[in-house]
Amino acid sequence: MAKLEDDFYMKARTSPSRYFHHPEEVLDHPDLSRAQKIDILHAWYLDATNLSVAEEEGMGGGEKQYIDDVRTCLKILGVGSEKLRPSPTKHGSNPPFSTSGS
User: Vertex 36, ends 23 and 38: CA angle to 5°?
Assistant: First the structure.
């Protein structure tokens, strides 16, 4: 992969919605590998999930999240929904501390 394409991938992975207007544009990008597309869409999913939580807490900016569209694109790439199931917290991760009292 050329350096320019590698730079684009790294930037798009960091902030997908800045480089793509819609998740389907990731699917259509001719210079990205399947693995890179999955990586970018997964990052978009995490961003959208975090923004959704922020909106629930009254801190949203009103931008469209595209969570369902990202899921659809990941399915097209063969990523099953089991990879995107929410975890125990709203943020989609396990609690950073034990709640068992030990």
Answer: 50
Alpha-carbon 16 to chain mean position: 8
Question: Model confidence over 38-92: pLDDT tens digits?
Answer: 999 999 988 888 777 655 556 565 556 688 899 999 999 999 766 565 544 555 5
Helix (H) or strand (E) holding 7: helix 3-14
Sequence-distant (≥ 6) Cβ neighbours of residue 76 within 8 angstroms: 27
In whole angstroms, give the CA distance from residue 8 to residue 55. Answer: 29
- Gap between the Cα atoms of 39 and 13, Å rounded: 7
Neighbours of 66 (CB within 10 A): 22
Question: What pTM value is reported for the model?
Answer: 0.71
